[in-house]
Amino acid sequence: MGRIPFKRLAVDGETVTVEERDDRGRMASGHPIGGEYTRNKIVIDRYMPTESKQVAVLHEALHHCWERGGVGRYLSGKTEELVLSLLDSWLWQILRENPELARWIAGEEG
Distance between CA 69 and CA 56 in Å, rounded? Predict the structure, then answer.
């Protein structure tokens, strides 16, 4: 279980803080989940395996994008979780299998 190596993400021109807590799978909402997003803040359960944390951070960052983009005006809350749960794993897999893509997007191409 590796620690998350950063405390902030830049998402759509805003700073989103990232925090690990000893929540043993229960966030403030009381739901047995590994991560939670509230306005500009991501909280991740520190006891999750590293790969699960990576997917959870992506998932919660996507909640920020969903909120900022106003997508909730067009789709229901249940749809949000379904869509983001599909996208987070796919996005993680694409980045994991194609590190050159992540470097290119970050402007680190040779």
Answer: 20
